[in-house]
């Protein structure tokens, strides 16, 4: 049986802003980077059948991603935390009341083999509209590595040709992302 084109296991590199002139490779990562989609379902019921469903309706799919950055540069952390840095200072700030769609960027996941990201677009995963939700959890003790666990909110694209889609497993030569492949 053939393996999945996106590979069965292994680490990855993430390009945030894929296809844009200011895209940035995020990382390195510690632990699993997890892309997850869950579809909600609501039961249709009739009184005479009690709690048993007589039908069900899908109510939408929510896609999220989790990644834990470690040993990153100020530039990478400033992008991931949606903030700024000057010299040796990264500014942590309150973020509130801003809509995410217009600031969301394409995010590309490339599997890594022998320390090198794959150059085969069939192995890539492309998310059209991803927004990294700022957050951090720093620990000081004698045996815990400091990391930045981040959540990514994946929004459904509203762009022409992609409307109603989150992204794709495998990227064709013409990915639809400006400046890409």
Task: Explain what you see.
Strands 1, 2, 3, 4, 7, 8, 9, 10 and 11 form a nine-stranded antiparallel sheet that branches. The protein has a two-stranded antiparallel sheet with strand order 5-6. The longest helix is centred in the middle third of the chain and has 7 residues. It is mainly β and 181 residues long. It has one helix and eleven strands. It has a domain of 126 residues. The two termini are 29 Å apart.
Helix content: under 10%
Strand fraction equals 35-45%
Low-confidence stretches: none
Q: Find the count of extended strands (DSSP E, 2+ residues).
A: 11
State the main characteristics.
181 residues, mainly beta, 9-stranded antiparallel sheet, 11 strands, globular
Give the structure's gist in a few sentences.
By secondary structure, the chain is mainly β. It has one helix spanning 74-80, and strands spanning 12-16, 24-26, 34-44, 55-69, 85-86, 89-90, 105-113, 116-117, 125-133, 148-155, 167-169. The protein is globular and about 70 Å long.
Show the helix and strand layout.
Blueprint: E1 12-16, E2 24-26, E3 34-44, E4 55-69, H1 74-80, E5 85-86, E6 89-90, E7 105-113, E8 116-117, E9 125-133, E10 148-155, E11 167-169
Antiparallel strand pairs: 1-2, 1-7, 3-4, 4-10, 5-6, 7-8, 7-9, 9-10, 9-11
């Amino acid at each position: 049986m053939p393996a999945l084109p996106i590979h069965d296991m292994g680490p990855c590199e993430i390009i945030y802003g894929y296809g844009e002139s200011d895209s940035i490779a995020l990382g390195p990562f510690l632990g699993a980077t997890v892309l997850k989609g869950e579809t909600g379902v609501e039961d249709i019921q009739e009184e005479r059948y009690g709690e048993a469903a007589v039908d069900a309706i899908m109510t939408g799919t929510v896609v999220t991603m989790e990644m834990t950055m470690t040993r990153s540069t100020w530039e990478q952390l400033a992008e991931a935390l949606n903030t700024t840095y000057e010299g040796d200072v990264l500014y942590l700030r309150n973020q509130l009341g801003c809509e995410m769609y217009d600031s969301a960027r394409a995010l590309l996941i490339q599997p890594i083999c022998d320390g090198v990201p794959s150059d085969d677009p069939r192995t890539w995963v492309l998310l059209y509209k991803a927004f990294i939700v700022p957050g951090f959890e720093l620990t000081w003790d004698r045996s815990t590595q400091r990391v930045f666990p981040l959540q990514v909110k994946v929004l459904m694209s509203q762009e022409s040709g992609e409307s109603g889609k989150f992204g794709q497993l495998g990227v064709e030569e013409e990915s639809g992302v400006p400046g890409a492949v």
